[in-house]
């Protein structure tokens, strides 16, 4: 369906050549032979043994037996979509990257979002960082921005990545827990590798349980370089800013969602694209002249540090729109191979030791995951520009390279394919002057692990701080080892004594007796309280029984839809509910098939006390939504349901007689996302 809505582009055209529609066709073997029977294997007599000769059975079964490939070592659970990127104005001053020059030009992109720790089938609402990988199919080759929704990382040197991941993944003796950091080995790693402090603060914050892939930021994390035509370099950090703002769910909701709909995030993205509500993100850059490299109280090469936006503003330079779902998840989402080393002229690396190590790992991992060195030929990975070199053969090779020459230098093919000069687009590494001794060591400038962790804490609103305290208390509360608990509490005393003291109390540990980093600065950009707030695409459960005020409810639903809010009708059973003035509504969900955690807000139309089952289930639904700080509204009979326990007097609960006034206030309450100033009863 989304195909028709989409303008085509060079990548879509290329993919089309590899796309096959089997509908309405005759069944054949892989050799093209038409098959006459697909129900029964070939046997010696109807009750006899199966014959070896049955090539159709053997081919079908052999292919099936090999359908799975190893899942990604991290980021196994992911979902992707196609889209396009446009730059707002030429970035010529800073970079010669072709796709950042011309606002008229659309660059095809493929974006995969993921959780880090869980296996391929794990619940999507795990407390975890989210991967945010973008492949730009530029005319100069593929450029991959392989980032996360958290701007810093757990470790400073890639050599520690296997240790981090071993500690984070399910414990090896019993493979528990799935997609969760709340276990002893992870926290033992944290306490004994204190460079993790800053990222752990983010992971314990609401950022780690996003409401939607469409409502989270993305970060390139490392410091990269922009290089312009003149060869001048600037340091750069990349950001993705979601047009819908950055929003999260609450932890109780996240845990329930993992059971009610483990596909919640992919379903949300898929449906938004199918509905034409294309997710949009603006690309932001923080640019730093080379001369300013040492002007900060942190090292810009340290991936556990961010550049406060108030000190180095984020310049928004373009927009990405995701406008087409994949045709086949395995062929596209599973086989896509990202690599931070896929760069184009004008974008280069810094000496961040984490980035340097990543440059090795990504190709290496694809060799076992995708089975050999030719994964760049898979349709989703092919650049849209031509590529020529002397690489040959290997498992699954698809290109038929002509000619006798596959080496360089040669005379038999006039020394081609030949390297391109810089003016012809040849990639030239930035000629940074380097000198130093070969050492296995870390710079002293990487040694402050707590100041920015405190900066993050200082920047949180009161509800955000409460959520973090609860997150730490939950995670440490799950630990079996009291010594690890105490080590972590002591460690976070360096970040905030307030946080560590409250967590120590919750988990029965001793109050740490140190001092925190003493940082008093805060960065408002880090708090989600300051994000954009819009009602668009929010889902509202409309709780209806028969005999409702038809005119009023229709009026409210029309207003909600006009603001691109999505009301869905919920009742005791599927079918039609009838209101006054002959107004009928088709029921989308029952209390059995839906749950309050699947919605952003609730509009209560009916009370229906006489229908005991309805009343009981509606009350539970409303109370749960209320406890998750969601906006609630009621008109007519529905008001009675909100009057229980005085819910109707709480912030974010809208009860008005006048339809227009009700709709306006309810939409405003929906835009606010959650109402933290509510006392949960
Ligand atoms: Fe990584 C996958 C992001 C550090 C090694 N990483 C992977 C993916 C994302 C990131 C989003 C999923 C890509 C996809 O959708 O296919 N990784 C990051 C970020 C990091 C980071 C933002 C720190 C700034 N990663 C990192 C290090 C190493 C790796 C330090 C190893 C030295 N990452 C891998 C990997 C993966 C991977 C093992 C697994 C699957 C894959 O590459 O294709 O190579």
From TrEMBL:
InterPro entries: Catalase, Catalase_AS, Catalase_clade2, Catalase_clade2_helical, Catalase_core, Catalase_haem_BS, Catalase_immune_responsive, Catalase_large_C
Annotated Pfam families: Catalase (PF00199), Catalase-rel (PF06628), Catalase_C (PF18011)
An example Gene Ontology molecular-function term: catalase activity
Needed co-factor(s): heme
Catalytic reaction annotation: 2 H2O2 = O2 + 2 H2O
Domain Catalase core: from-to ranges: 28-416
Gene3D superfamilies attached to this UniProt entry: 1.20.1370.20, 3.40.50.880, Catalase core domain
Keywords (A to Z) from UniProt: Heme, Hydrogen peroxide, Iron, Metal-binding, Oxidoreductase, Peroxidase
Record field: compositional bias (Basic and acidic residues): 13-25
Compositional bias (Polar residues): 511-529
Keyword Chaperone in annotation: no
EC class (word): oxidoreductase
SMART domains: Catalase
Protein EC: 1.11.1.6
UniProt keyword Iron, yes or no: yes
Stretches the record annotates as Disordered: 1-41, 511-536
Function, in words: Decomposes hydrogen peroxide into water and oxygen; serves to protect cells from the toxic effects of hydrogen peroxide.
Family named by the database record: Belongs to the catalase family. HPII subfamily.
Name this protein carries in UniProt: Catalase
Species for this entry: Aquibacillus rhizosphaerae
């Amino acid at each position: 369906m989304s195909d028709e809505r989409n303008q085509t582009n060079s990548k879509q055209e290329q993919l089309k050549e590899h796309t096959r529609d089997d509908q309405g066709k005759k069944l054949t073997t892989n050799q093209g032979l038409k098959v006459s029977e697909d129900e029964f294997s070939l046997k010696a007599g109807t009750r006899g043994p199966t014959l070896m000769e049955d090539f159709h059975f053997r081919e079908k079964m052999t292919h099936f037996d090999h359908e799975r490939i190893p899942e990604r070592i991290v980021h196994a659970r992911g979902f992707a979509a196609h889209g396009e990127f446009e730059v707002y104005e030429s970035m010529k001053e800073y970079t010669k990257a072709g796709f950042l020059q011309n606002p008229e030009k659309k660059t095809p992109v493929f974006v995969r979002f993921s959780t880090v720790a869980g296996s391929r089938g794990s619940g999507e609402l795990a407390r975890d960082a989210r991967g945010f990988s973008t492949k730009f199919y530029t005319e100069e080759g593929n450029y991959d921005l392989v980032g996360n929704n958290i701007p810093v990382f757990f470790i400073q040197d890639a050599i520690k990545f296997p240790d981090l991941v071993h500690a984070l993944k399910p414990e090896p003796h019993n493979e528990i827990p799935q997609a969760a950091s709340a276990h002893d080995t992870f926290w033992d790693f944290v306490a004994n590798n204190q460079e993790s402090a800053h990222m752990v603060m983010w992971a314990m914050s609401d950022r780690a349980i996003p409401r939607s892939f469409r409502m989270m930021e993305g970060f390139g994390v490392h410091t990269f370089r922009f290089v312009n035509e003149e060869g001048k370099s600037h340091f750069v950090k990349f950001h993705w800013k979601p047009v819908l703002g950055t929003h999260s769910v609450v932890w109780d909701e996240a845990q329930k969602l993992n059971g009610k709909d483990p596909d919640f995030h992919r379903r949300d993205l898929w449906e938004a694209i199918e509905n034409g509500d294309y997710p949009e993100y603006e690309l932001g850059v923080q640019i730093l002249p080379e001369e300013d490299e040492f002007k900060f109280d942190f090292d810009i090469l340290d991936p556990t540090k961010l550049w406060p936006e108030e000190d180095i503003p984020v310049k928004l330079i373009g927009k990405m729109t995701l406008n087409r779902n994949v045709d086949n998840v395995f062929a596209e989402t599973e086989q896509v191979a990202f690599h931070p080393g896929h760069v184009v002229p004008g974008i280069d690396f810094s000496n961040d030791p984490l980035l340097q190590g990543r440059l090795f790992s990504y190709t290496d991992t694809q060799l076992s995951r995708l089975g050999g060195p030719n994964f760049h030929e898979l349709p989703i990975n092919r650049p849209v520009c031509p590529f020529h070199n002397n690489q040959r053969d290997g498992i699954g090779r698809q290109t038929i390279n002509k000619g006798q020459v596959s080496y360089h230098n040669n005379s038999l093919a006039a020394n081609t394919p030949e390297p391109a000069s810089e003016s012809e687009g040849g990639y030239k590494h930035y000629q940074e002057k380097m000198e130093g001794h070969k050492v296995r060591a870390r710079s002293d400038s990487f040694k402050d692990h707590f100041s920015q962790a405190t900066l993050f804490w200082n920047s949180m609103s009161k509800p955000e701080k409460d959520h973090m305290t609860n997150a730490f208390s939950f995670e440490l509360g799950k630990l079996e080892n009291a010594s690890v608990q105490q080590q972590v509490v002591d460690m976070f005393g360096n970040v905030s004594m307030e946080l560590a003291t409250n967590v120590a109390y919750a988990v029965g540990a001793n109050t740490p007796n140190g001092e925190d980093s003493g940082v008093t600065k805060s960065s408002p950009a880090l708090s989600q309280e300051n994000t954009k707030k819009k009602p668009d695409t929010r889902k509202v459960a409309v709780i209806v029984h028969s005999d409702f005020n038809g005119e009023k409810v229709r009026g409210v639903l029309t207003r909600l839809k006009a603001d691109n809010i999505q009301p869905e009708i919920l009742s005791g059973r599927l079918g039609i509910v009838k209101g006054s003035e002959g107004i009928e509504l088709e029921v989308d969900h029952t209390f059995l098939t839906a749950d309050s955690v699947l919605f952003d807000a609730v509009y209560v139309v009916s009370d229906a006390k006489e229908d005991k089952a309805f009343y009981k289930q509606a009350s539970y639904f409303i109370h749960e939504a209320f406890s998750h700080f969601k906006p609630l509204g009621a008109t007519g009979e529905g008001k009675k349901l909100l009057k229980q326990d005085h819910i109707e007097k709480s912030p974010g609960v809208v009860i008005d007689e006048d339809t227009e006034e009700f709709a306006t206030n309810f939409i405003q309450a929906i835009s606010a996302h959650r109402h933290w100033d509510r006392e949960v009863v």
